[in-house]
Amino acid sequence: MLLAAIIGCLLLQSVPLPAGDKDAEPGESGRLWALEPLVLPKNPEVQKTSWPRVSIDYFILEKIEQAELAPTRQAEKRTLARRAYLDLHGLPPTTAQLKTFLEDRQPDAWQRLIDKLLASPRYGERWGRHWLDVARYADSNGMDEDIVHPVAFRYRDYVIDSFNDDKPFDRFIVEQLAGDLMPSGNLAQKRSQTLGVGFLSVGPKMLACDDPDKMRRDIVDEQIDTTGRAFMGMTFGCARCHDHKFDPVSIEDYYGLAGIFMSTKTLTKYSVVARFHQHDLSEEEHARMRREIADLEKRKADKTTPEEEKKQISSKVGQLRKDLPPVFEVMGVTEYPAKDAKVHLRGDYLTLGELIPRRMPAAIAGKRQPDIPADQSGRLQLAQWIASQDNPLTARVIANRIWHWHFGRGIVTTPDNFGHLGQQPSHPALLDHLASSFIDSGWSIKQLHRLIMNSATYRQSSLAETQLKQTDPENALFARWKPRRVESEVLRDSILFKSNRLDLTMGGSMLKEQNHKYVDRGKQKEYIKSMRRTIYLPVLRSSGYDGQKAFDFPDPAVITGKRNVSSVTPQALYLMNSELVHESSSALAGIMLEDTREMGSKQRTSWLIMHLMGREATTSEQDRGQSFAANYGKDEETAAWAAFSRALFATNEFLYIQ
User: Fold this and answer.
1) Strand partners, 295
2) CA 77 to each of CA 92, 240, 287: distance values in angstroms, whole numbers, following the listed order
3) pLDDT-derived band of residue 14, with 50, 70 and 90 as boundaries?
């Protein structure tokens, strides 16, 4: 392994590749495609003019027709409803919800369904989890010292609320990088904004390093790399030791950013074991209540105050002390004394080179650098520059992420890397159209959902012609709907939901450990038995939950814009043997038997298939259900239908978004 790495390094050094151009301006020829200015392209001309429903369909159809193929017909209304519920909520529709939609004959029924789903708090729980993949969220540090983050949940809840509120994405960016530096009108706003900077703190950190200078620089490196990849799809971390080998990012660009993050405090104690900085945002509220208590006690001490009033004051003071809210602490960074950083030759902080002013990467920002005051870190200016519509990367990256999370495949199939080592966009004009439309909508993610989901492209059936599947097996043309397995959280939540066991309580933490205490891994069995949505289960970096790991829950130590999708034996074993599936199947069987007391086995089979799959059972399925139940005997009716339910939970039809 070591020999291979050395050879790889030598080969890279022998290839003449572009370094960062300090004087480069956006739009210069020969530059990386992702750095070209964002433009709003016109809708292409197409032959089948009856097919497009919205603007994006023209861009999709153009490529399909160039390949001498045709798009697939629209999926059935029943299929579309289940697709929309799983896509936006991460939960399948109930039979009643499905029936309501199927009976809605109005021409705008689909649009109204989308609006209804986007207005539900379930939406933020589903799409907030997508962003937490990118933010490498966890409730413990992992690494060398796996201590708990008991207030990290506030960042998770902030993300969920931000998606539910359709917070403009440009503001969402600024809050996550510099929310503590933004002006606020009241305590509630200050808390909300500061919650965002948990983004820079929740990443894994080596807390037992005996070299505090190295520890600090490693934290800065992780923050630079995560910020670059999450918001701009650029691997700035590669330039820590030398000019980027592939992308136009120089070592000077890296240390211009490093100065910003070196002027930012993440830890309050850098000696073993290091401690995280936390904002105490309870001070203002506590101070107000203490002043009120002091005023009351002063009046009580006044000799002229009647005895009856003194008794009332004592009662009120006691109630105020009882109502004093708990400390409201927030995980997040703050300002350090600002200073520029020197280039670390070969990444060694003991071998320093040129002093680099804090600034944005020259190849992207060019000469139009924002002013960074001498007494500020530059985090706020960096955040505002990233969130600017003039930045050619930011809107493209998030538009591609949203497309990927809808279709299981991005227009750029490397969502965290828009550099030379990433893939070229399959539909570059469509990506620019999406990004431009996104900015014009006020950076509204919900509007982007509407644009995508109202398209003919999104509403296609997965039942495509054989020639199309053979010609485009990866569905790079998006000429059909390609079924994809639901994520691990959706699987668990759907099983609990369909057995009436899911607890839809929102927010809060399940962790019981105190701040800076080590993770008690024995409590994982307690956490996984909770009936709450999976997004609220503590994410422990040192170990995960068996069922979640089997179905490709991402590594929370790294940014994950694209999850792995595997088909491995442990998945089948989990669906056959896990407590979740057995207990949920038994609960579902009980519900079904209660609802179908006067029905026979065929009708019960139909009930279960409608309940889980959202469709009528076939005659063959009814016969098989009847035969299956009969083999158990009358005395084992519940066990028979629990086993049948378990089999249905494990079907592709339940596991996939069709």
Assistant:
1) none
2) 14, 53, 57
3) very low
Residues 6+ apart with CB under 8 A from 174: 182, 380, 383, 384, 387
Cα–Cα nearest to 562, from 405, 430, 393:
405
Distance CA 127, CA 117 (A): 12
Q: Give residue-wise pLDDT tens across range 357-392.
A: 999 999 899 888 999 999 999 999 999 999 999 999
State the residue for tokens 């003449």.
16
Alpha-carbon gap, residue 418 to 435, rounded angstroms: 14
- Mean pLDDT value across residues 524-536: 94
Q: 247 CB contacts (<8 Å, ≥6 apart)? A: 18, 32, 234, 235, 238, 363, 419, 420, 421
Q: What is the pairing mode between strands 278-280 and 352-356?
A: unpaired
Single-letter amino acid code for the residue at 138: A
Looking at residue 30, its pLDDT comes to 56
pLDDT at 324 (0 to 100): 83
The partner residues of 485 in beta bridges, in order of sequence, read 656
Question: Which one has a higher pLDDT value, 321 or 158?
Answer: 158
Which secondary-structure segment (H or E) carries 335?
Answer: strand 334-335
The C-alpha atoms of residue 90 and residue 554 are separated, in whole angstroms, by 17
Query: Distance between CA 657 and CA 92 in Å, rounded?
Result: 10
Q: Per-residue DSSP letters for 396-464?
A: HHHHHHHHHHHHSS-SSS-TT--STTSPPPSSHHHHHHHHHHHHHTTS-HHHHHHHHHTSTTTTB-S--
Nearest in space to 173 (alpha carbons), one of 162, 183, 184: 162
Q: Which of 487, 491, 493, 501 lies closest to 584 in space, CA to CA?
A: 501
pLDDT tens for 414-435 read 999 999 999 999 999 999 999 9
| Alpha helices in 267-393, H assignment, sequence order | 283-301, 307-323, 362-365, 379-386
- Asked if 40 and 436 count as a contact pair (C-beta separation under 8 A), the reply is yes
DSSP string, 49-104: TTS-SSHHHHHHHHHHHHTT--PPPBPPHHHHHHHHHHHHHSSPPPHHHHHHHHT-
- Give Cα separations from 313 to 211, 286, 500 (angstroms): 56, 19, 49
Q: Return the amino acid letter for 132.
A: L
Return phi, psi of residue 174, to 5°: -60, -40
**Quick check: helix, strand or coil at residue 240?**
coil
pTM of the model: 0.91
Largest CA distance in the chain: 96
Confidence bin at 12 (pLDDT 50/70/90):
very low
**Nearest C-alpha neighbor of 17 from the set 186, 221, 243:** 243
Cα distances (angstroms) measured from residue 167 to each of 85, 87, 88, 533: 22, 20, 17, 23
31, pLDDT greater than 50? yes
**Which residue is listed with tokens 């509007």?**
447
Q: Is pLDDT of 223 > 70? A: yes
Tokens of 486: 């639901």
Burial 251-287 (b: 16+ CB within 10 A, else e): bbbbbbbbbbbbbbebbeebeeebebbbbebbeeeee
Task: Please state, as a whole number, how many other Cβ atoms lie within 10 Å of the Cβ of residue 596.
Answer: 17
Q: Under a CB-based contact definition with an 8 Å cutoff, are residues 286 and 324 in contact?
A: yes
The answer to whether 81 touches 98, Cβ cutoff 8 Å, is yes
Q: Is the pLDDT of residue 238 over 50?
A: yes
Strand partners, 275: 269
Q: State mean pLDDT over 158-175.
A: 98
Q: Which two tokens stand for residue 123?
A: 């939406």
